[in-house]
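Sample A.
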Amino acid sequence: MIKNGKIAVIGDKDSVLAFKAVGVETYIATSAFQANDLLHKLKDDCAVIFITEALAEQISDTLDKIKSYAYPAVIPLPGSGSGNGFGMRGLHRDVEKAIGADILFD
């Protein structure tokens, strides 16, 4: 159950800086361990958690477990460098699972 509708971002300093400017709670993580720890601390208080693709890929098992709940929505996004495609692959897999067909990338 969500205690509030907070939005948070987990990632490297350069990636989360822009979100801080618009009032989103930001959390800097430089390792998979830090990202995993932050995700577990934030999951009960946030409606949406953005996480950089590089970190999300490293903790994909944790993300899969959290996806079984309605909240929070954990959304991978490209980091300050360039994206590695992890977020798009996850979206593709989720849509195909939900619909039963590849409607995005056929």
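Sample B.
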Amino acid sequence: MNTANKLTMVRVVLIPVFLVVLYLGFVGSAYIAMLIFIIASLTDLADGYIARSRQQVTNFGKFMDPLADKVLVFAAMLWFVERGSLSAWIVLIVVVREFAVTALRLIAVDTGRVIAAAKSGKVKTATTMLCLIVMFLGLPAWGELICAALIVGTTVFSGIEYFIKNGDVLKGAK
């Protein structure tokens, strides 16, 4: 297993650790969980850089890296929903965007085309991860509202961009 894939696996292993620490609920557990989330998020940045710079892009990485990102982000978002710091409709927008873009990519593969990650998708992921990290610090209501707006805005923008740039794939779908 190459270095990039090892970092992805570290992220996968950190997800249940993150959740266990969150739900143990001891004094300071949210801050420890935030540190775990930061480390897991940084592995995403590192494994992407390593995979591209060392030409270590693998089918395993193409599949597991985005899946690990989504599970990590959804785990944190759902915890914030449970705490009342984030509205469920925000998570629904993120989930719908992820399913829609994934479906578009699957249709594209069927037509012999690969849809690579767009810059706006990377900005969406980074913005969401940063906002979630900031939310762990315990923001006032207006701060949570700003984070929610940033998450929704980058999610919707990147989803629309994927369909504008690649919508022609739908015309050729069987």
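B remarks: Helices lie at 3-24, 29-53, 59-83, 88-110, 119-136, 141-166, 168-171. Residues 15 and 72 are 6 Å apart (CA to CA).
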